[in-house]
Amino acid sequence: MPSAAATDDGWSTRHSVLAVARRTAALVNVLAGDRPDPADIADVLRAHGEAGPIELTPRDVAGMRTAAALLRDVFAAEDVDGAALALNRLLADGTGPLRLTAHGGGTPWHPHLDRDDDAAWNEWFLASSCMALTVVLWDRQRPPGRLCSSPSCRNVFITQGSGPERRYCCRRCATRERVAAHRRSRPSA
Ligand SMILES: [Zn+2]
Predict the structure, then answer these.
(1) Is 5 within a domain?
(2) CB under 8 A, 24+ apart: contacts of 119-122
(3) Which of 17, 66, 106, 153 could share a disulfide with 148, CB 3.0–4.6 Å?
(4) Which residues surround ligand 1, an ion (CB under 5 A)?
């Protein structure tokens, strides 16, 4: 199923841990709606390097939504310990043993936690996401991601490696909340 063309630019960066972590956040977000459009999900997969035809059945989408809801626990964790516990639960219940694959020579060798290269979309999504979030947490000793602090937004995002913690998923949410806080701080006329 998921595959990638060997000739593409960014052959190795596209398979970097951070690239997979960002894809995880984008998929969790697109799958958060009540009825995610399979075309939107396919667009996110393509934007993150998935090559070839992407056919998602209603069953695939349902399975991916379940995986996204499970992964949300990692983003919702208060601190690094909570994120590690959430990931350990997923690694114990939802993923297979660690293995290496190069998809028959189409990609650089990289680790997988799904059973094989033909795993169903939901299994691949959960396993590849757990792998990336685990390595990011290991590397930074911080939660790999966060929920957006805007009360009107349900998005998750991948946190920066260092520096002050980002609170919002995007500039639009940050601006909206800054304006709202400014309004609240002004005495009413
Ligand atoms: Zn947001």
Answers:
(1) no
(2) 119/1, 120/1, 120/60, 120/63, 121/1, 121/2, 121/56, 121/60, 121/63, 121/64, 122/60, 122/63, 122/64, 122/66, 122/67
(3) 153
(4) 148, 150, 153, 155, 169, 173
